[in-house]
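Cross-check.
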Amino acid sequence: MTEVTRGAAGRIWRLDLGTDRYAVKELFLESDEESVRREVAFTAHLQAAGIRLPASVPGSDGRFLVPLAGDAGASWLRLYQWIDGGPADLADPGLATRLGDILGRLHAHALSAQGAPDPWYETPRSRAPSPPIRPRAGPAAFATSGRSACTSRAG
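Predicted model, tokenized:
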């Protein structure tokens, strides 16, 4: 397993098992299975609409959210199919069009809100600094790093 990135909300590793590749995400924020299942249903809805994103993988017991072993509940693990990506070329004149296309398709396939919004969306973040993020090759490389959504067109 290889660490890929870390941010304020979690850490992601790539897990290679033979020819299968997965993303293992450690969540630093509290979560619950019900919320995760709603997210899984929504992302499956987006995938069915042709939007490329990593599928969630359930554990052998069918749960998508697993407490980190040896932890008192402060960290959780999620498993996703791995999707290769690459850096976005910020000089590419078609990049804004592709991003706009993806955002438009996401909005077109949005589902109606159900229930009250999660308090996370309405609670201001602490003013405490986030843990440092380690860029691979300095600030310039970090600023230009892209994600798979920026470099491919689903559909």
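DSSP finds four helices and five strands in the chain. The CA atoms of residues 119 and 125 lie 11 Å apart. Passed to J.P. for a second look.
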